[in-house]
Amino acid sequence: MGVDVLYASATGNAEEIARRIHAELSDHGLEAGLLVELNQFVDAGWPLSPTASGTEFAGKVCVLVASTTGDGDVPANGTKVLRYLRDKAKPKKFMQGLRYCILGLGDTNFENFCNSARRIDKALLQAGAENVYLRGEADDGTGLEEVVEPWIDGLWDKLLQACSNSKGVPAPAKENGSEKIIPKETGAHENGDTLELPHPLELRVQLSVDSGDPAQEGTGHHKTWCASAAVRDMTVFNVSISAARRLTAVDLVDRRVWHAELDCSEIQFSYRPGDTVGVVPQNRDEHVDQLLKRVALPVGLSLEEVDTTAVKLVARDGGRQDIVRNVSLRTCFRDLVSLADAPKKTLLVALAQFCSDVADKRAMQWLASKEGREDYRKRIMAPGGWGILSVLDSFPSCLPSAELLLDQLPALAPRYYSAASSPKADPTRFHFAFSTVLFPDGQRGLVTGMLEDMCSSVEAGAGAELGPLRIVLGQKDHFRPPADLATPMIMIGPGTGIAPFRGFLRERQAQIDALALKNGQSAGVRGDAWLFFGCRHKDKDFLYDTELAEFVDSGVLTRLTVAFSRDSADGVKTYVQHRLLEEREQVLARLLAPGECRLYLCGDGGAMVRGVEDALCEILAPHTQNDLASARVLLKEWEKAGRYRKDVWHWG
Ligand SMILES: Cc1cc2nc3c(=O)[nH]c(=O)nc-3n(C[C@H](O)[C@H](O)[C@H](O)COP(=O)(O)OP(=O)(O)OC[C@H]3O[C@@H](n4cnc5c(N)ncnc54)[C@H](O)[C@@H]3O)c2cc1C
Ligand SMILES: Cc1cc2nc3c(=O)[nH]c(=O)nc-3n(C[C@H](O)[C@H](O)[C@H](O)COP(=O)(O)O)c2cc1C
């Protein structure tokens, strides 16, 4: 019985690691079983209705790799497994006999670090399976490979033991008490040394020239062939920007924030305050052109035909049925894969095989090797590091196949934006605010650059001539305004973190208006709604200032406290956390008053979150015998109980 490898992955990291482990099993004397998404566990022989005897799992050995997404969630292609494992109708310990190793991927910038792997691990143990290796927890915030590499190094021995124990034969002995050194595929380094390289992955994409025209994009629901793996299971809608305005002053060139409104009247789309919309990106034409000139095209296709001739793309995808698309090669490279994200080491190893120049080949192998990890980190992983175009620029003799790049470049993932509107007030429109991402080399972020062009054109009255926007809905059930108007709330949203709170306030306004209509003038008991906002300058980037003032005037917002970080005469920077501390007595009184005040935090950046949470702990300390550690525990408890809710993101 082979070792199955199962993965749950949102943006491809866990999938790539799972593929690598699967590819390397045979190098270590292990029989490779299936490589499938976690949701396809039935294919790995996990029966939907297991018997109490647990015989179905006897002797099975598997490796699981699971990233965490959303707010500590299992990625969509792995969610079914938790339901399966926790199903109370199943016999107790029905998975007895299964031995497994699990690797979690996460990011310590997020609250629930590696929560997905932790939950799956716990559920497997409760179902009677046996974990034969320490759970790995790799941190994308500091570099996944710090944990992934040593974890994989130690994995083989555990699997060999698990497999031989399953067969009732002793595990292979270690040589001289140390780990058995197993030969890996090696490449010669410039100095004649050998390098330790990851195993190249099995290619899962095939391209061939198809007769006929490439299929045209539909409107409304998007055809699945146009979706990258990152949005494959989601409904993709085509919408247009119907209104837009710049929220920051025109002379504030290094910080540009826009308000945009999506017209959703033509689509079956419903959202709630707190939800997000994911904008599905397309790579820029000039980058696609550049790439198309640097790939070996499928046999029978010339560069002149990359727009007009259909190619048949067949992809075996995570144990699913083959996905077949009949599209132009340009569409494939425009819509499916990311050209900016760091290429994985397994791709570099494969690219080395396409270098005709020996020096290029060696240098590429060096970057992919364990020995060259520092160079990989500096050149590829560092902010502004090489995407595939820079890699190909630096290795001029490398002419990879289009199949390889479509298979192994990271999927092009949607960028999410929080609803700044309420369906009660804006039933057919979704509002959001975005900050244009500006890079030191003068480039703009892929999506925010495109959105800015669209918004400028709409603001100038030119209409949505830049074509439809493709979106998916991202639900955020943990980030909702209180259902009851009587529940008090404190909202902390500096910068574009204000966006969901504008949505909350519009919802609140609509609720108050509806109640007033029903009950005459009285809208019943209303809890406090206190907003902390922060920006640089009062007259340049105070987002939604007029509307917020109106909310205060109408009583929808009971207090508005603002921090301007660059307006003070003495040059001292004041942020929202400083304002919170200035108001500490009032904040504490509200947090401890009956009525369970809700606390919300939204915005960009780990530093902001740390600053605000430190301030909150200081504020809570008098309530915890002036012990900051206990205050932190209390904040955590509130978070678990849903009294404190966060929606924070990190793009840099
Ligand atoms: C749940 C959630 C809600 C969000 N809500 C909002 C919101 O309401 N408003 C908002 O503005 N944002 C929000 N974001 C962030 C948003 O989704 C995007 O991440 C952000 O707008 C950047 O997208 P982009 O495509 O423009 O940038 P990208 O092109 O993806 O660039 C971002 C990263 O790419 C790299 N990069 C690419 N090119 C270069 C280069 N030339 N030089 C240096 N580095 C480079 C860098 O690592 C950079 O950090 C949210 C994110 C999440 C997860
Ligand atoms: C929108 C989003 C939400 C995330 N949420 C969490 C989280 O709650 N906890 C965590 O540990 N990591 C979180 N991460 C980090 C990912 O788990 C990490 O980047 C991982 O490498 C992604 O692997 P994947 O490409 O296989 O999905 C999140 C990443 C993104 C983009």
TrEMBL record:
This is Methionine synthase reductase. GO terms for molecular function: [methionine synthase] reductase (NADPH) activity; flavin adenine dinucleotide binding; FMN binding. Residues 3-156 form the Flavodoxin-like domain. GO terms for biological process: homocysteine metabolic process; methionine biosynthetic process. Its cofactor is FAD; FMN. It is an enzyme of class 1 (oxidoreductase). Its EC number is 1.16.1.8. Pfam families: FAD_binding_1 (PF00667), Flavodoxin_1 (PF00258), NAD_binding_1 (PF00175). Residues 234-482 form the FAD-binding FR-type domain. Keywords: Amino-acid biosynthesis, FAD, Flavoprotein, FMN, Methionine biosynthesis, NADP, Oxidoreductase, S-adenosyl-L-methionine. GO terms for cellular component: cytosol. InterPro entries: CysJ-like_FAD-binding (IPR003097), FAD-bd_FR_type (IPR017927), Flavdoxin-like (IPR001094), Flavodoxin/NO_synth (IPR008254), Flavoprot_Pyr_Nucl_cyt_Rdtase (IPR001709), Flavoprotein-like_sf (IPR029039), FNR_nucleotide-bd (IPR039261), NADPH_Cyt_P450_Rdtase_alpha (IPR023173). SUPFAM superfamilies: Ferredoxin reductase-like, C-terminal NADP-linked domain, Flavoproteins, Riboflavin synthase domain-like. PANTHER family: METHIONINE SYNTHASE REDUCTASE, NITRIC OXIDE SYNTHASE-RELATED.
